[in-house]
Amino acid sequence: MPNLDLPILVVDDAKFSSMVVGRTLRNAGYRDIRIANNAPAALKLMEERPVSVLIADWLMPEMDGLELTDQVRQLDEQTNHYTYVILLTARESVEALSEAFDRGVDDFIYKSDMTKQLIPRIFAADRMADRQNTLLRANALLVENNRELESSNIIDMETGLCNAKYARQRLQKILRHAESRGGASAYVMCGIRNWQDLKRKHPPSVMSELAIGIARRLNSLIRPIDALCRIGDNQFVIVSYFPNSDHCTPTAFRRIFDGINHKALKTTAGYISVEAGMALCRASAEEGTPSVQDMEKASIQGLIDAYETRRFVEITPEIREGV
């Protein structure tokens, strides 16, 4: 069954021709028909409300059918819409029609046989425009769904660990927990100092194996109640809470530092040793509650110091008033 509410726009500088087209469409039962006497007027109407089918004369003053098609395709791109373009023409040369198809025209109706060709071509245009716009809407929905998934995603897809977003969420919860219950929050940053050197020596597949191996090694060394996250290619963090502030020291994480530095990791390229730097950023309830950003900032500075000294360093975040 034809869609008699199909939005159609007829563009022709010759009023008699546009009247014939409009009358033929209305006699076939189509109800949503608009008529413009020139291309600029047609574009204005389409900006106000899109159409599914555009029927335009090829030869018009100011802007011909091909130039109008160029403008329509730009408008379609901006509005995520597809307009089926049919040109009315007396030109039947292969070269002319080939040029028009290259410019984005979908179909032609020869003026000499317009009354017989018009309605069957509209039936075909309706199906094609509906299919294209259904696909565009479905694709837009997929893109939006992907954006929502990415914005809510808390998993690092390569290693299966939690990512930086989750690390911030977890750190925020632990800081507030320590603030209300006492104890200390620990944000331990572990960075692979020789990562860039290794990237120059090994292909991405081996580096991926290495990242997964580091994740597994770290995961086997942390406490079950700790959160391990990957926040960058070569950076991992452990987010921990200690009910007793005195227990939150580098000693509590020493075995992790030794475990990642003193034993090579197996890959398809053989055993690879990594040089890890670690920095403990510690915040106790007695000393005040820093912001997540201040914990992260202090940890980065601590990691830089750890790289330079090749030691496991401890650093205290700045406590700002009003935080």
Automatic annotation (TrEMBL):
<keyword id="KW-0597">Phosphoprotein</keyword>
<dbReference type="InterPro" id="IPR043128">
    <property type="entry name" value="Rev_trsase/Diguanyl_cyclase"/>
</dbReference>
<dbReference type="InterPro" id="IPR029787">
    <property type="entry name" value="Nucleotide_cyclase"/>
</dbReference>
<dbReference type="InterPro" id="IPR052048">
    <property type="entry name" value="ST_Response_Regulator"/>
</dbReference>
<dbReference type="InterPro" id="IPR011006">
    <property type="entry name" value="CheY-like_superfamily"/>
</dbReference>
<feature type="domain" description="Response regulatory">
    <location>
        <begin position="7"/>
        <end position="126"/>
    </location>
</feature>
<protein>
    <submittedName>
        <fullName>Response regulator</fullName>
    </submittedName>
</protein>
<dbReference type="Pfam" id="PF00072">
    <property type="entry name" value="Response_reg"/>
</dbReference>
<dbReference type="Pfam" id="PF00990">
    <property type="entry name" value="GGDEF"/>
</dbReference>
<dbReference type="GO" id="GO:0000160">
    <property type="term" value="P:phosphorelay signal transduction system"/>
</dbReference>
<dbReference type="InterPro" id="IPR001789">
    <property type="entry name" value="Sig_transdc_resp-reg_receiver"/>
</dbReference>
<dbReference type="InterPro" id="IPR000160">
    <property type="entry name" value="GGDEF_dom"/>
</dbReference>
<feature type="modified residue" description="4-aspartylphosphate">
    <location>
        <position position="57"/>
    </location>
</feature>
